[in-house]
Amino acid sequence: MRHEPRRDSRGILDPGRLRRRVHLRRRLPAPALRPWVEHYWLIDWDLTDPFDQRIVPHPAVNVVFRAQGGEAEQGEVAGVGTGLFTVTLRDAGRVTGVQFRPGGFRPFWRRPVAELTGRRLTLAAGPPPAGTAPAGPFAAGPVCPGTDAQRCRRLDDLLTAWQPVPDPLTAEAIALVEEIRADRSVLRVDDFARRHGISARRLQRLFLDHVGVGPKWVIRRYRLQEAIEQAAAGPLDWSRVAADLGYADQAHLVREFTAVTGVSPAAYARSLAAPRGG
What we know:
Layout: H1 15-21, E1 23-27, E2 37-46, E3 51-55, E4 62-68, E5 74-78, E6 85-89, E7 92-100, H2 106-109, E8 120-122, H3 148-161, H4 168-182, H5 189-195, H6 200-210, H7 215-231, H8 238-244, H9 250-261, H10 265-273
Antiparallel strand pairs: 1-2, 2-7, 3-6, 4-5, 4-7, 5-8
C-alpha cells in the first residue's frame, strides 16, 4: 500500500497551467480507508478572472465539496465521467474532494456503480443517496473550512460514518483496474480475461457493478491518458504511439484523442509549447 499520494498528472489537460493558477495538493486518507480511497484532493484559488480547466476523467467516483464566490458549500457524488469534464473557477474558492479507487466506491454506495456513471448527484446533509448507508457527520457543517489536516479529518470522519463493508469482489475489481492502469501490455479484454482465468462476460459484469464502466472502456481511457501525457513530451512518431497503445492505426488514435479532448494530439502538443502569460 502506498505511503504517499500519486504525483502524476494523468487526466489533467495542461497541468502546468492549472498549477500556475490554483494551489492543488493531494493527501492520503486514514489507513483504514486506503483500500478504497485513492487520495483526497484539495484546491484553493483566488482569481482576478475566470479560469476554465478541462479534465479527461479517470474511471473513478469522486465525492466533492465546493465553495466559491461567497456561495454556500455544495457537496456532490460524481460518477465516472465518460466525456471531457470542464469546470470554471472564479473569484476565491476551494474544493475538498475524495477520489475513490476505481471500484472502491461500491462498499459505500452498496448498489451497482453503473447507476452513477455520467451523473452528478447532490450530496445533502448525510450519506450518498443509496438509501442504505447510515447518516454521516456532514450534517454537522461544511467540510471545506480549516487547515488541510482539518479538512482531511472531516473526510475521514464522513467516510468512516458511511460504514463501508469489505467485499472480496470489490478487492478483485480494484486489483484488476490497477493492473490495467500499470501494465501497458493490457490492450484487449479477451486476452486480459484469459490471463486471469475468467470469462469476458464475468469481467464485464464485475466492472459494471463495481467500477461503473466496462473493461474495454477502462483500457481505452488509460491508454488515451498515456497518449495525452506523451503529447506533452514533445514531437512524437504518432504511428508508433498508436501501435504501442493498442490502436488499429494512427488515425484511430487521432480520432479518439480529438473526440475526447476537443483537439488533435498535434494541436494539443503545440498549445503546451506555445508561450503563455499565466
